Amino acid sequence: MNNLDILKELNVLHVDDNIQACENIKKTLEYYFKNVFIAHNGEEALEIYNKKECHLLIVDYDMPIMNGYEFLSKIREKDDEISAMIISSYDDKVKLKNAIGLNLLEYIVKPYGLDELKDVLNKFVKSLEKKELLRYYVTETLFYNRLKKTFIDDSKEYKFTSYEIKLIEYLFKYKNQVIKYDDLLYILESNNQKSLINSVYNINKKLNIKLIENVKDMGYWLKR
């Protein structure tokens, strides 16, 4: 099995204000990834990031409205784990210095070729495996498999509905943070709070643990 085959189960967000460049790289990325999301500035990218499941961020530094550094700085306020790389039109010491604090997978100067991109993608896969970011452990034996989208405990497998999976993955994304009811309903594209309550109940019941906890009058959180 090719190391990059795992990318077929993952999604990438590419952010660049150059529309033609986005179209060109999208065709290449679609060969490797399950879904390729495109944004042309940091604000668009932030909206996609909050709504979609993204595993890798490929971000141009220089963009209008919100540049790549500003976008990734906002991401890092909440998410230290997601892999990200910055691309830039030229080598700039100030940009490089700024990028150091963003915990980047790579900083690449344009133009770059397919071989260089593949090297970064291989580095991305290795980092996922090393940090076990394809698994979210709940106990020593129970973990959530992001690729299979199931919970596994030794040889036992627990499956959930697509609605429940969306809720689980969002709460894992912001683990140890209380997420407001309205924010969860927005992400789930629903206005039915009863359905949200029932989903939390079903998830906890299936796993026979209190994975998701309610914070009265505020929302839910996933303690880890």
Please identify the structural class as seen in this structure.
alpha/beta
Chain-averaged pLDDT: 87
Shape: globular
Total beta strand runs: 12
Q: Count every helix, treating DSSP H or I runs of 4 or more residues as helices.
A: 8
Largest sheet: 5 strands, parallel
The strand line-up of the biggest sheet is 2-1-3-4-5
Uncertain residue ranges? none
- Helix percentage range: 40-55%
Name the helix and strand elements from N-terminus to C-terminus, one letter apiece. EHEHEHEHEHEEEEHEHHEE
Task: Report the radius of gyration as a whole number of Å.
Answer: 19 Å
Question: In short, what is this structure?
Answer:
Helices cover 42% and strands 22% of the residues. The protein has helices at 19-32, 42-51, 68-78, 93-100, 114-130, 162-173, 181-187, 193-207; strands at residues 11-15, 35-39, 56-60, 83-88, 106-109, 135-137, 142-145, 150-153, 156-158, 179-180, 212-215, 219-222. The strands form 3 sheets. A 5-stranded parallel beta sheet has the order 2-1-3-4-5, sandwiched between helices. Strands 6-7-8-9 form a 4-stranded antiparallel beta sheet, with no helix packed on it.
